[in-house]
Structure formats: structure tokens, C-alpha cells
Design goal:
Largest sheet: 5 strands, parallel
Distance between the termini: 47 Å
Oligomer: single chain
Length: 488
Amino acid sequence: MFASAQLPQTLDKSDFKELEPQLRDDLLKAQLEMIERKDFSVIILVDGLDGAGKGESIARLYGWMEARHLVCNAYSEPGKEARQHPPFWRYWRDLPAKGETAVVFGSWYQPILRARIYGELDDDGFQREMMKVRRFEEMLANEGVLILKFWYVLPADVQKQRLKAIEKKKAARHVLADWSTLKNRDKASQTGEEIILATSKGYAPWFVIPSEDAEYRDAALAQTITRSINLKLADGTAKQVAAPPVVGGLEKRSALDAIDLSASLNKKTYEKRRDDLQEMLSEISDTKKFAKRGMVLVFQGNDAAGKGGTIRRVIRPLDPRIYQVHPISAPSDEEKARPYLWRFWRRLPRRGHVAIFDRSWYERVLVERVEGYASHEEWLRAYDEINSFEAELVGHGYLVCKFWLSISAEEQLRRFKAREETSYKQHKITDDDWRNRLKWDQYAIAAGDMIDRTSTRDAPWKLVSSEDKRHARVEVLQTICDRLKEEL
């Protein structure tokens, strides 16, 4: 591979000086139009061998582009905070808003490169990591991120000379990556080729840049970025969508139809079981084993199904320092400017902590689907994106518990009226609640599809009858305790 990149590629300094004004003008025009339209963001990922001038070319790029809308994110070994979260957390955290551009050094490829070169990742493990990367990049691309990945190559003798020069400048030693120096050159080049073959896709292509000649290198970088932004500005084609199959039939029935809404508990039995389970939850959450894990609790359900009251019973026995409740409403302008999962990645707990979501990422396939806030392509592909997201959490040691609290239409109407008639509950009822009630059947279909497509072995849905609130609260507490005992 990269045969063309190994050939001498040069641009005379006088020719570059003549070409530079047009390079700058074209690049800046493309960036300014992107900033004005705010249809997408750009990630420029820079990778390759040490000594190839990655930093120098990006420094020149900063001089050519509007720097106020350009940020550089450099990643090295994850720090204490990053180690408390899944590996992709810090990359999600730093995603640029639409209209903005981020240059990324030391990206999500660096840990894979290092592990592969040092023999810490076998073939199967490498392929699994490549699959995770492809899912991540496709998700970003589908949400309006233009991903441009550049791999800088350099002849061995030239690299040797440059590394010697870098070593003489002690202040510059931090730019060296331990995996791509001369002693690992062959393995690094081979691994780079494997990565490029596995992850160069139409939605996130790799570009190999010959880097011996600085003028040629930087001109090629600028032209590629300009062309890619212009193509994206002109691109109106729909993205591919994918969703696992859902159960079909002549009569549409869903998992919600199987919930026994008659389940109930008397007050005495409820109080005894609630107290026992809360004590158990308190004890488990205080163990050393729990301190090494994270827990994510998701509450969805019909309006007025009792999510808030159930959450209060869950958090009562927990140390307030280890949990946070996230009530999810309509996304803010800042959140709309980024991929929709961004706001949930930012809210993930550290190890030993609990994040409780009162509504969640599932609003994409519920409210946004039914109300038309998300396009058909957006909510349909969200099932696969959500499954991948939750698989990342489970793979990192999180326990994910998802609850659907279900009530009948008649019980919902009774609770709505009670809220209107009780002064301290009136804030709980809104015009949106009444409007959503008119679409009861549509929400039921959407919820059934959601459960079918996202109830996985690692992150199953627990369907809870909430017609009787006491039953629902005990059922949720019991499920959490059972899952914790099983996992820990």
C-alpha cells in the first residue's frame, strides 16, 4: 500500500508561494460558508509517523483558516477522570458544534496502534476495536460531522534525520509518540495500513499525505480539506439507515400488551419490602466491588406513570455524593448543534457512581419519532446507535437497567385530572401532556418497537406495571438489587 506516497512528491518554494494565496482563499471561503450555514461540523484527524511534520502543517492551517472557529484537541494517555469513563467518553465530550472545526491529535486510533504494535492486541481483538471505531465514526457522520483523516508518511532516512533534530530540542520531545519512532517503524507502518484498510469509509475517509516536502504536504492538506468541505456543502443525499428486524404479523401486538396492569401491593406489604430492598441497595452501593463499577438507570414510560416517585424511592438509600438525577427535556441550542447522543455521554457517571435518567436517549425513538422532530432516517438508525452506545457502557463495566413504567389510558386520565385539582401537583401537568395523550396509540406502537429493537442481553428492558404505584416502586427496587447481586 501507499506506493504513490513513497514516490518523491515536491512543490517548489516559488510555485508554492504563487499557489498559496489561492489555497488560503479557497479554504477560508469554504470554512466561512460552513460557519454561516451551520449544517455540519468538521473533525480533522492527523496521524502518522513521528517527524512527518504533523504539528507544523496544522500550525500553517491555523494561519490560513478562521482560528476563532478552529480548536485543537490533543490526547495522550487518559488521565484520572477519563479512566473513570468509557474510552470514547473524552472524544464525545469534545465534539465541535455545527459550523466549527476541530483538529485532533492522538485520537481514538492511538491506543489501538500502541496496543497492536506492542503485542497487547491479537487479531480478534484488533477486529473488534475496528468495529467499534467504524460504529463511532458512522454515528458521527450520520449526525452531521465531516470526518477527514490524514496519515502522514515519510521515507525512513528522512525520518531518522528529523528525529535526531527533534531530540536536540528538549522542549520538543513531548511530540514523540512511543509507538511510531524508528525502532517501531515497520510495525507502525504495517498497523497503519491495516487500520486504513479497515476504517477508510465514504463517511470517514483516510487520506495518505507524503510529508518529505513541507510545501507539498501543506498544499495537499489544504486542498483536500477545501474539496471535502465543498462537497459536503453541496451534498443533499440521505444517509444509510439500519435497524434490526422487528416482529411482524397480521395483527400488530407488542411487548406492552403482555404487561399485567392488575398487579398491586397492599400498604403493609409494600412498606416492608420497600424498606428491606432500600437497606439492601444501601449496603451493596457501599461495597468495594460497586466502587469499581458504574450504574446507569433509565426510566421511560407513559406520562404520569410515576417515574419521579419511583426515582425518589431508589435514591433515598443512596449516598447523595454518588448519584445524580438527570431530568431530560427538549435539547438546548448547544445540544442541537452536536450529535444527539453527545448530551448523554457528557452525563455518564464515574466508576462507583450512579446516573439516573428521567427520560433519556430513547426520546429519539419516542417523542421525536411521533411528533416528527426527527426524520424517518434519524429515528430508524437510532436503534442501532443506541444498542452500540449501551454496549460500550456495558463493555466498560457499567450496569445498565432500563425501566418502562406502564399504565392504562384510563388511569392516565384519572391522574391528569388529579394533578389539575391538586395545587402542589399542578406543575406536573402541561398542555404537552394533553396533546401527547391524543396520540396514545402512536406512542404505544413506538414504545413497542423500541422494546423489540433495544432489549439486549446486556441491557434488557424491565416492563413494570405502574397502575399501582406501590407495586411499581418495589418491582424497580427488586430489579436493581437483583442485577447488582448478579453482577457483583
